[in-house]
Write a structure and sequence with these properties.
2 copies of one chain form a homodimer.
Chain A lengths: L6 H25 L6 H8 L6 H4 L3 H25 L4 H18 L1 H8 L5 H28 L7 H21 L6 H16 L5
The structure holds a DNA duplex (30 and 30 nucleotides).
Chain lengths: 202, 202
DNA sequence: GGAAGCTGTGAATGATGCTTCACTTCTTCC
DNA sequence: GGAAGAAGTGAAGCATCATTCACAGCTTCC
């Protein structure tokens, strides 16, 4: 009998899978979901198309994994900022700025996560993550309202609006070339977000 | 020689094309772009699949026409409200409300126009129309700033944010079932939009 | 060393759905 | 009525890709 995987072998497989996800993420960031065929992704990872199916049961599963990893990092970062130190308004402002800054620093990926046409499975994942963004924003808004820093409002609506507004504001810059106006954009964007939540203007 | 089209024949062809676009719009509103195959659309219009190509050079061209007609109506309506009588803030408020109300009254179509997965040609059209929405909002915001009704701000950003915010807020209600909370939603949405533009709360 | 079994390969398979085309049906006009 | 030609048909053609599979190459462990 020769069928027990050695730790080294397990590590090799895991590494191969990690590498596949990483390369697939790069491909998606560069050419978008619709152009990221199984063949293209496999080529980028240096394996045969068929080998993808050693790691994932379908292309959709791989795509979902790519999305989750990348979007998960963003949720995590945003959560840390929004749950971090400072008053609700300050945290909201910093959260919006950090989120937008990270997107602008990694345009291709940000565009893929936010807006690029994608297969249904990825679309569903996108929806799910948008809900998570909303939930994070809603929490801070609610806190702000309770503390009196923000006026009474429907926090869910404001949170959804913030999510949509940030995405929409970023779509054009993310699609176009780097234009050097990033800092001005960030300032305008955070100002808008604060107005949106009803924070008194500084 | 028998190849001159009579007026009646021309009318018949035009009517057939109109009918095709109308039925295709219904199909898209019901099942979304991805399920609206040429066969399904042709069936709905009561013609053969091949006949679609008498009117449009490709499926994409038909889809684009469907999108343009439907989205064009919304741009027109929004434009009328935003250019109508009243102060900038009042018009902005009414514009948001009218836009959202129309979407909620025609959910399937609104979802298809705003968010449903679609082929690249439709995606491009969607982007183009979003720019038109933004331009309309930007105009009113600029007017409001000039008249002093709104605080100084980057009108383009606010306009993009309004477009994104409205879309995002509507996506969930449009996807789910009618829940009867439409009026409350509209009130919260317009309140958010006014805050977003910096209008003093009523 | 060598049997057993897992991983990797990439061409073949299969599904989907747009588009074409040979043919039929309808309209025009003498 | 009938010739000429357009519109309409729908099944076949075709392109695109995800997925499979028979086979080759490796790793494990006695």
């Amino acid at each position: 009998m020769a069928y027990r995987k050695t730790p080294a072998e397990i590590r090799r497989l895991t590494t191969a899978k990690e590498r596949l996800v990483a390369r697939a993420t790069e491909v998606v960031a560069e050419v978008g979901w619709s152009q990221a065929s199984v063949t293209a992704v496999a080529d980028a990872a240096g394996i045969a198309a068929g080998s993808v199916y050693q790691h994932f049961p379908s292309k959709a599963a791989l795509a979902v994994e790519v999305f989750r990893r990348a979007a998960g990092r963003e949720v995590e970062v945003l959560g840390e900022v929004l749950h971090g130190p400072g008053g609700p308004v300050e945290r909201l402002s910093r959260g919006v700025e950090v989120f937008a800054r990270r997107a602008l620093e990694n345009r291709g990926l940000a565009y893929a996560l936010l807006a690029a046409p994608a297969e249904p499975a990825v679309g569903a994942e996108r929806l799910a993550f948008r809900r998570r963004y909303r939930a994070l924003f809603a929490e801070v808004v609610r806190e702000g309202v309770e503390s009196g820093a923000l006026p009474a409002q429907n926090g869910e609506i404001t949170a959804a609006a913030l999510t949509g507004a940030i995405g929409e504001v970023l779509v054009d810059p993310l699609g176009g070339p780097e234009d050097g106006a990033a800092e001005a954009l960030l300032a305008d964007l955070t100002a808008m977000a604060l107005r949106c939540a009803g924070a008194p203007t500084a």
